[in-house]
Design a protein that fits this description.
The chain has one domain: Glutaredoxin (3-Layer(aba) Sandwich). The chain is built from nine helices and ten strands. By secondary structure, it is of the alpha+beta class. 34% of the residues lie in helices and 18% in strands. The strands form three sheets. Strands 1-10-9-4-5-6 form a six-stranded mixed β-sheet. Strands 2-3 form a two-stranded antiparallel sheet. It has a two-stranded antiparallel sheet with strand order 7-8.
């Protein structure tokens, strides 16, 4: 017998219609937020960034691949990650293969960027069965400049800026808890794991110039994490007590 509140179909419909109004209001607010994102001032990027891609060494402008808009997912995969990319980033990226083609045919290129060397990224893509573009920024300042990688000195001193906040210390040690669990899954320690950070940045290309238009981090990425959009509509919601997800090829290995 369920412990959840039950009712008649009429009671359910009345509650559902009340919820529908709240959902519609959230949709309207989401539409307004999208409009405000598009109204942000663009910042011209004059710095030269170089990336290694499957095809060749590339500039930031090259990552657009003939489109006028570029979406970059800052995928946590550092050069010292020995066992693969971040499982959380991997769960988000599982959805990329499907819609990257749709975006590319609507003047938007999607590309993941990580500091791991290209050979590591390519091997992990093959393991995961992914085909979306993924570039290595190893040796450059791209991740540092967009606040998704920090030095050991910054980490020790708490001199970092992430998610538009400065000074928050990153976890550096410990062998328990969700951060340690994620670090172990990537084959590294907590300090090394947390020097990388997840995020998403948007860029525009006009008249040969590249502009930074938007970035979001931390829970700002929730809307890009497809499985959570479905879980939020399931009868028990997210129903979490800790880190339950794995890379999609690891569930049968528990």
């Amino acid at each position: 017998m369920t412990k959840h509140r039950t009712g008649t179909r009429e009671e359910w419909l009345a509650a559902r219609l009340k919820l529908l109004e709240a959902e519609k209001e959230l949709t309207r607010r989401s539409d307004e937020l999208a409009r405000r994102r598009q109204e942000l001032p663009w910042v011209r990027i004059d710095k030269e960034y170089r990336f290694e891609t499957d095809e060749r060494s590339a500039s930031l402008a090259d990552l657009f691949r003939g489109r006028s808009q570029l979406l970059v997912y800052h995928f946590m995969f550092g050069p010292d990650y020995a066992a693969g990319g971040c499982p959380s980033c991997s769960a988000i990226a599982d959805g990329f293969n499907g819609f990257v083609t749709h975006l590319a045919n609507h003047d938007v290129m999607l590309c993941a960027v990580s500091r791991a060397p290209l050979a590591k990224l390519q091997a992990y893509k093959r393991r995961m069965g992914w085909t979306f573009p993924w570039a290595s920024s190893l040796g450059g300042d791209f991740n540092f400049d967009f606040n998704v990688w920090f030095t050991e000195k910054q980490q020790r001193e708490g001199d970092i800026e992430y998610n538009y906040r400065r000074g928050a210390k990153l976890q550096m040690r410990g062998d328990e808890g969700p951060v340690a669990q994620m670090a172990a899954a990537t084959g590294t320690d907590v300090a090394t794991y947390t020097r990388e950070r997840p995020g998403m940045s948007a860029f525009a290309l006009e008249d040969g110039a590249v502009y930074h238009t938007y970035s979001t981090y931390a829970r700002g990425l929730d809307g890009l994490w497809g499985m959570y959009q479905w879980l939020d509509r399931a009868s028990k919601g997210r129903n979490e007590t800790g880190i339950w997800w794995r890379r999609h090829d690891e569930y049968d290995k528990r």
